[in-house]
Amino acid sequence: MQSTNRSTVTEFVLVGFSTFPRLQPLFFLLFLLMYLFTLLGNLLIMATVGLERSLHTPMYLFLCTLSLSEVFYTVVIIPRMLADLLSTRHTIAFPACACQMFFSFAFGFTHSFLLTIMGYDRYVAICHPLRYNVLMDPRGCACLLGCSWAGGFLMGLVVTTAIFHLHFCGPNHIHHFACHVPPLLKLACGPDVLLVARAVGLVCIAALLGCCLLILLSYAFIVGTILRIPSAEGRHKAFSTCASHLTVVIVHYGFASVIYLKPRGPPSLEGDTLMGITYTVLTPFLSPIIFSLRNKELKVAMKKTFLHKLYPEKL
To answer: DSSP string spanning 110-169?
Structure first.
C-alpha cells in the first residue's frame, strides 16, 4: 500500500504505553493473562459446541462463529501490543500498519454483525417458535453468517483504503498502541484529511448504530412477547435464553460508544490508551465469561464434555 510518490513515511512509531514506563511490566503480565484466558475461553466454547451434538443448533452455531471472530480480532492486536511492552523499539512498517487496521476493522465489524443476527435468532425463537426451523434453516443460517463476514471485511476494506490513500508526510508517532484511525488521521496532511475523517466516522457510526438499532428492535418484540406469557416460570425461561447475548451486547456497544461517540476534548495519550484497552482487551476477555456463566445449557455441556473425561466418577 506504500507508494513513494504519495508518502514520505515508511514506518510508524506506536507510543501508546510510553507514558507508563514503570507500569509496562505489570501491564504485560496482566494483559498476557487476560489474552490467554480470552483464547482459552473462546476455544473452550468452540470445542464444546463442536463436540456436543445437543448444541448443534443455529444459536450455538452463531456463538461458535462469534468466538472465532473474537479470537481473530485479539490475535491481530494483542500479541503486537505485548511485544511492544517488552521492547524499546515500537516501530511498525507502513504496510503492516495498514494490515493491522484492515483486519481489526474486519473482525471487529464481523463481531457486531454476528451479534445482530444472534439477536434476530432470539427474536425468531421467542416470537415465532413454530416457524423457527423454517426461518433458521441451514441454508438461511449459512447466508446470514456469510453476509456477516462479507460485511465485516467490506467495512475493513473501505476504512483502510480511505485512510491509507492519504498523504503521510511526518511526524510518524502514533499516539496509541495500535494503528487506530483518530491518531493516524492526525499524522496525515493534505486537503482531503477532514473529508476522509468525516466520511470514515460517519460510516463507522452508521454501521454500529444500525446494528444496535436492529438489536434493540429485536428485543422490543422479544420483551413484548415475554410479557404476554402467563406463567412467571415461562417468562423466566424465555428470558434466560437471551440473558447472555443481551449482556454481551451491552458490554460490546457500551465500550464501542466510549471509543466512537466520546465528546471532543483536549487530546490525552493516557486517556486514549486506557479507553482503547477497554475495547481491545477487556471486552474480548469478558465475552466468554458471560456466555459460560450466564448460559446454563452451555455450562452443563462444558461440564459434560470436559469434566467427565477428567473426573468420570463425579458425573
So the answer is: HHHHHHHHHHHHHHHHHH-GGGHHHHT-HHHHHHHHHHHHHHHHHHHHHHHHHHHTSEE-
pLDDT tens profile 5-49: 444 778 898 888 877 778 888 999 999 999 999 999 999 999 999
Beta-sheet strands, E only, within the chain: 11-14, 91-93, 167-168, 173-174, 188-189
Question: How would CATH label the architecture of 11-314?
Answer: Up-down Bundle (1.20)
**Residue 17 phi, psi dihedral angles, 5° rounding:** -105, 15
Domain ranges (residues) in the chain: 11-314
Residue 252, pLDDT score: 83
Q: Tell me which H or E stretch contains 80.
A: helix 58-86
Do the Cβ atoms of 98 and 159 come closer than 8 Å? Answer: no
Cα(174)–Cα(93) distance, rounded to whole angstroms? Answer: 12
* Rounded distance between C-alpha atoms, residue 313 and residue 169, angstroms: 67
Would the pLDDT of 310 be above 60? no
- Judge residue 303's burial from the number of C-beta atoms within 10 Å of its C-beta, 0-12 exposed, 13-18 middle, 19 or more buried: middle
Q: Which of 243, 277, 240, 237 is nearest to 258 (CA)?
A: 277
| Secondary structure letter of residue 8 according to DSSP | S
**Separation in Å, CA 131 to CA 85, 126, 136, 222, 295:** 52, 10, 8, 15, 23
93 SS3 class: strand
Q: What is the pLDDT of residues 249-283, one digit of tens each?
A: 888 887 777 666 555 555 555 666 777 788 889 88
Quote the radius of gyration of the chain (alpha carbons, Å): 21
Are 301 and 54 within 8 A, CB to CB?
yes
